[in-house]
Amino acid sequence: MSTATRTTPTGTGRPGSSARPDGPAAPARAASRPPARAWAVGRVASWTLAAAVPLLFLGTFFAWPVLALVGRGFLPDGALDLSGFADVFSRPRTWRIVGLTLAQGAIGTVMSVLLGVPGAYVLYRCRFPGVGVLRAFVTVPFVLPTVVVGVAFRALLRENGPLGFLHLDGTFAAIVAALVFFNYAVVVRTVGGLWQRLDPRPEQAARSLGASPARAFWTVTLPALTPAIVSAASLVFLFCATAFGTVLVLGGMQYGTVETEIWIQTTQFLDLRAAAVLSVVQVVVVVAALAVAGRARARRERALQLVAPGSSGAGPARPHWAPAVVTAGVLVLLALPLGALLLGSLRTGDGWGLDHYRALGTTGGRNALTVTVWEALGNSLRIAVDATLLALLVGCLVALLVSRRPRRRAARRAVGVLDGVFMLPLGVSAVTVGFGALLTLGHPFGIATDLRSSGILVPVVQAVVAVPLVVRTVLPVLRAIDPRLREAAGTLGAGPGRVLLGVDGALAARSIGLAVGFAFAVSLGEFGATSFLARPDLPTLPVVIFRLIGQPGADNYGMALAASVVLAALTAGVMALAERFRGPAGGEL
């Protein structure tokens, strides 16, 4: 409880004291307050339940499959055998894969930051007509399924594509460009969200003292933005290093990464020991990236407390020409793959038309598919609904848990550790999770039904992948809530559940709506884990698109482009609708 000064009936007051209960209303107020012991018991029970549900869910459907797969690699005969590390790292192929992973992660991160910071300034610091539309547009690549991103760049860079003369199809440069295309929004939204709320007066003071705009930026604004830039860079590196669908479509076997190598070792070579070693390497990289992002995020939150209220909307009406030119060029480059995807889907053998879209109601040339594209889309929508509901329940409980700041230092450290643990699914290989679930979750806890053949595991694993994004969307809003609001509600007699709904739920409702959009879009486009778990008669749309790309014939490729357009339009529409729920304080990556 805060020690606010309360005024007594005689006009005096002292900190921590309350007014003397005079008059007939005092007994009613006293009776409305719950006993301290009952409140404490209810509070402990509520937090225990809030922690138990996500821990049980992620422990069963994330930690168990991952550890089981790693265990099969390191415990082949029931005894610990670490010779797999020496074996795997003695292969030149492994060092080449690790080098490519680190190279694409580092280059993709640097390029995303260099291009994203000017975009954050233009789209979040400046005011001009249409800025809201442009903010929504730069988010579209991030929510596109990775398979669709790969297909779009293939359509742009292939021999008869708009940029085919560059001869970049299947090159390392094409992969990096696709990763920057995908992650540009991470930098823009993360850095722009802070830049929008920075007090402009320190920079204005530097300018009034004779500093040039460039010097004022380097000496005043950039240091304030550094925590957000580091946080965004850490997340971009994580997304680049664990990219799967995009790299698989564009790079294939020649430019594989640790993520694609895990998939190859498990599906083609059945070498679980090599897959386990690579999974451990990837987990170490992910934990390091999350640790850096967490420290940067904590510094960022402390900086936001210093923002002067009412000054966040201040800023130039028009941006400076240099960042405006860079941002305009990036927006054109973002539109090129999407335009190439649409044009390629309309191109037929003898001109232009909707033939490829009409073919979506068939199983493709030479019956390349077991179901039609529309049936696969129906499967994806049903699975995405189930996955979104699960991710929303678990993610909101996690956000509620880690948003609290306990008074005890040990408790604060425990909350920080839980925050990092709950974010691990964001970076751990979805291939590892999917293959581990395939191996371990057939009959968990003695269940008679085989979950692998029932189709239940697909939405569950997709929910595991979506939970971290739900947490990152809802958590900033919950952390911004003044704890005195909860204390006041409890003092007035509200129980823990009523406080949760009336305070946290009401204030976080808009960010929850945005979280629904993120979870639904991620579930629609999830490919890594789903490629292991989807039944042949119930494939999802990303799985069907990948199958069509691997089939010979121009008609099958045209169907893949048309199906990608449908999936891209659907995910963009979902996010456009969800952005309407975005509140002024929430919805950042």
Automatic annotation (TrEMBL):
Keyword flag Secreted: no
GO biological process: transmembrane transport
Transmembrane segments: 47-75, 95-124, 136-157, 172-195, 274-293, 321-343, 383-402, 414-436, 456-478, 557-578
Protein name: ABC transporter permease
Region (Disordered): 1-31
Family note: Belongs to the binding-protein-dependent transport system permease family.
Alphabetical UniProt keywords: Cell inner membrane, Cell membrane, Membrane, Transmembrane, Transmembrane helix, Transport
InterPro entries registered for this protein in UniProt: MetI-like, MetI-like_sf
GO annotations of cellular component type: plasma membrane
Membrane topology annotation: Multi-pass membrane protein
Main location, first listed in the record: membrane
Cellular compartment(s): Cell inner membrane; Cell membrane
ABC transmembrane type-1 domain boundaries: 98-291, 377-578
Protein source organism: Cellulomonas pakistanensis
